[in-house]
Write a structure and sequence with these properties.
The strands form two sheets. Strands 2-1-8-9-10 form a five-stranded parallel sheet, with helices on both faces. It has a five-stranded mixed sheet with strand order 3-7-6-4-5. The protein folds into two domains: about 120 residues, Rossmann fold; about 110 residues, Rossmann fold, CATH 3.40.50. The longest helix has 14 residues. About 40% of the residues lie in helices and about 20% in strands. The protein has about 270 residues and is of the alpha/beta class. Helix 8 packs parallel to helix 10.
Length: about 270
């Protein structure tokens, strides 16, 4: 057998520990040594009055939007707690931000009507617009407590009534799992969400006057997409690799392409 394409490469994965396998597994299968350094963790929002009230009127929504696998898992978990059946979604179009989220919905027995080609909020808006635009409809957006507002804001500008329902939140970890010099010595430092970038920067900050970019000078930063890249750039970091397809497969493919384009680093 020939040498696997990422043999000898050390790659840092900053995803939450419970989600790391989706990226770490493919990288390890390609020969990489993966260093798990989670910066945030996922915490469900417990069943509360807001969730109960929203689920009680679930049949009133014409469009229900999911922007992550986590959102799917927690939303349907709360549905089961409240005894709400899938029939409550029968009259709604269900939209997913990407194929993994769509697959999670399918596993729940839900038919997905809209999946964009570009797996970011802007791509989902483009797909919704191509489908006629949700003007004068009631929309439910199940998501993290803190997230970009471009999706609900734009839908409201189009004339939709939008209810945003937080079903999980990201909580920062207290410390990095490895010293910053060891992270900086890796070949790639990956980020899959703006929140992971920001928390990493907080935890990796050095003495005043020492830019984070200098502390990380040895590693090439690999981003899953433009929103994550923008967060990195805002902190003075240079993104060397950005995935064209904004999912785990796209990020792995982008790293493979970068390695292949830099034979001197092999």
């Amino acid at each position: 057998m020939g040498e696997r394409p990422l043999t000898g490469k050390r790659i840092v994965v900053t995803r939450p520990a419970e989600q790391a396998e989706a990226l770490a597994g493919p990288l390890e299968n390609l020969g990489a040594e993966v260093l798990l350094v989670p910066t945030i963790r996922i915490v469900p929002v417990p069943l509360n009055d807001e969730i109960r009230a929203t689920l009680a009127r679930l049949e009133s929504y014409q469009l229900v939007v999911f922007t992550s696998v986590n959102g799917v898992a927690e939303f349907f978990g709360r549905m089961r707690e409240c005894g709400v059946s899938l029939a409550a979604l029968a009259g709604a179009t269900v939209a997913a931000i990407g194929p993994r989220t769509a697959a999670a919905l399918a596993a729940q027995g839900v038919e997905v009507g809209i999946v964009p080609e570009d797996y970011v909020a802007e791509g989902l808006l483009a797909a919704l617009g191509a489908a006629g635009g949700p003007s004068e409809v009631r929309v439910l957006l199940a998501r993290a407590r803190e997230a970009r507002e471009v999706l609900p804001d734009t839908l409201r500008e189009w004339g939709a009534t939008v209810d945003v329902l937080p079903v999980y939140e990201t909580v920062p970890v207290e410390r990095l799992g490895l010293p910053v010099p060891e992270i900086a010595a890796a070949d790639y430092l990956t980020f899959t969400a703006a929140s992971t970038v920001r928390r990493f920067a907080e935890l990796a900050a050095g003495p005043p006057g020492e830019p984070l970019a200098e502390r990380l000078a040895g590693a090439r930063i690999a981003s899953i997409g433009p929103a994550t890249s923008a967060a990195a750039c805002a902190l003075g970091l240079t993104v060397a690799v950005e995935a064209s397809d904004h999912d785990m497969h796209g990020l792995v493919s982008a790293i493979l392409a970068d390695v292949a384009s830099r034979p001197s680093s092999a």
